[in-house]
């Protein structure tokens, strides 16, 4: 320990001496420390993860857009089919109505005997 004694100083000696002329004081420029290999690898890894996430967001957005387009197409087909079904139901109702049956029977000289008709929907 005695060999290190010369390195220690009192607090009064440790204080720097103030210069009266501030223009002559030199200013130490900041110099950035070099990155270690581990830090560079971490930055590269985080950058790669961020790029993958950004690509994933864009891919998901494109897929959602394509899905919405196909849903809209299918919905329009469903609406057209429902409309067609409604028209067909209306035609069936018209064709099976009592007035139409009487008209067709009259056209082909047929008669309907009410005695032979039996209602089963009671």
What is this structure's SSE topology?
Blueprint: H1 11-14, H2 37-95, H3 98-107
Question: Can you give a write-up of this model?
Answer:
This protein is mostly helical and 122 residues long. It has a domain at 37-108. Helices cover 60% and strands 0% of the residues. It is built from three helices and no strands. The protein has helices at residues 11-14, 37-95, 98-107. The longest helix has 59 residues, at 37-95. The protein is rod-shaped and about 135 Å long. The model has no long low-confidence stretch (mean pLDDT 84).
In a nutshell, what does this entry contain?
The protein has 122 residues and is mainly alpha-helical. It has helices at 11-14, 37-95, 98-107.
The helix-and-strand class reads: mainly alpha
What average pLDDT do the residues reach? 84
Q: Work out the number of β strands.
A: 0
What percentage of the residues does DSSP assign to strands (E)?
Answer: under 5%
Question: How far apart, in Å, are the first and last alpha carbons?
Answer: 119 Å
Q: What's the tally of helices? A: 3
Percent helix? 55-70%
| Main sheet overview | none
Question: Low-confidence parts, pLDDT < 50 over ≥5 residues?
Answer: none
């Amino acid at each position: 320990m005695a060999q290190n004694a010369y390195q220690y100083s009192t607090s009064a000696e440790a204080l720097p001496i103030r210069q009266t002329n501030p223009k002559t004081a030199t200013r130490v420029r900041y110099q950035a420390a070099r990155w270690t290999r581990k830090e560079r690898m971490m930055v590269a890894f985080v950058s790669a993860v961020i790029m993958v996430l950004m690509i994933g967001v864009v891919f998901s957005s494109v897929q959602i857009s394509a899905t919405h387009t196909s849903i809209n197409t299918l919905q329009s087909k469903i609406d057209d089919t429902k409309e067609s079904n409604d028209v067909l139901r209306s035609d069936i109702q018209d064709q099976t109505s009592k007035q139409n049956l009487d008209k067709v029977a009259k056209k082909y000289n047929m008669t309907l005997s009410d005695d032979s008709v039996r209602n089963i929907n009671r």
